[in-house]
Amino acid sequence: MFPIRLRVNVRRTVRAPQLRANVGCYQIVMQCAILMAIALLGGCGSAKRYNPQMYTYDVQYVDFRTDQVKDMGAVDAAGAVSAFRSFPFKEQLEKAKTLSEPTFPTISFRSGGDEAVLAVWSLEPDEYEIYLEQNEEKVTLAVRGEALPIDAIQSFFNGSRAELYERLAKQPGAVTQRGFWNRLKSLFGGK
C-alpha cells in the first residue's frame, strides 16, 4: 500500500478563489484515493464479499461446548435438505448418552441477506425441534418425523420466512417470541 500524504499550508492566508481551487483539488485527490482503495480491496481475495442471497450453515455435535459450532460454508436449498438428511442425529444421540454434559445435535442455516436463522436439533430419535428467528420474531416447535423440518428448510430457502413463521407459530405446542416493534404493529393492526 502506498500512503497518501496531503500537505496543507495553514500559515498562509488564502483568498476565496484560491481556497475553492485548493478544496477542489483536495476533493479530487480524496475521490481518487477512495476509488483506489475500493479497486484494491475488490481485486484481492482478502476482502469478504457480501452476497445478500448467500446462505451458510453450521453444525453442532453433542461433544461441542454450547458456544461451539463447525462452519460448513455456503449452501443452497437442495444442499441444505441433503445436509439435514445426512446429519448423524441418531449416532449423536447415542454418543450423548456417554457424555456428562452433552449439547443437542444441531444443524443451523443462516441467510446472508436478512440474518434469519433456521435451526433443527434432535432430542430423541426421529423427534426434532425447529427454531426460526427472523425480524425479531422467534418460534420453536417440537415435531415428529422429517417431513416438517424438510418443509421448513425449503420454505426458508425460498424466502417465504414470514409465511413460515406464521405457519410454525400456529401449530399446537409452538413457543413464540415477538420483538417489541412487531408486537406494537400487531396491536395496532399492522402486519
Walk me through the structure.
The protein has 191 residues and is α+β, with helices and mostly antiparallel strands. It has 2 domains: 48 residues, no CATH class; 133 residues, no CATH class. It has a 7-stranded antiparallel β-sheet. Strand 3 and strand 4 form a beta hairpin. The radius of gyration is 26 Å and the shape is globular. 16% of the residues are buried. About 11% of the residues have low confidence.
Draw up the topology in text.
Elements lengths: L15 H28 L11 E6 L9 E5 L2 H10 L2 H8 L9 E6 L5 E8 L2 E8 L2 E8 L2 H12 L2 H9 L5 E4 L1 H8 L4
Antiparallel strand pairs: 1-2, 1-3, 3-4, 4-5, 5-6, 6-7
Helix pairs in contact: 2-4
**Estimated radius of gyration:** 26 Å
Which shape, going by the Cα principal axes?
A: globular
Number of individual domains: 2
Strand tally is: 7
Q: Strand count, sense and closure of the main sheet?
A: 7 strands, antiparallel
Helix content: 25-40%
Q: In percent terms, what proportion of residues is strand?
A: 15-25%
Cα end-to-end separation = 50 Å
Q: What's the pLDDT, averaged over the residues?
A: 79
Query: What structural class do the secondary elements suggest?
Result: alpha+beta
Write down the oligomeric state.
single chain
Lateral strand order in the biggest sheet: 2-1-3-4-5-6-7
Give me the strand/helix succession: HEEHHEEEEHHEH
The low-pLDDT segments are 4-14, 43-52
Q: So how many helices?
A: 6
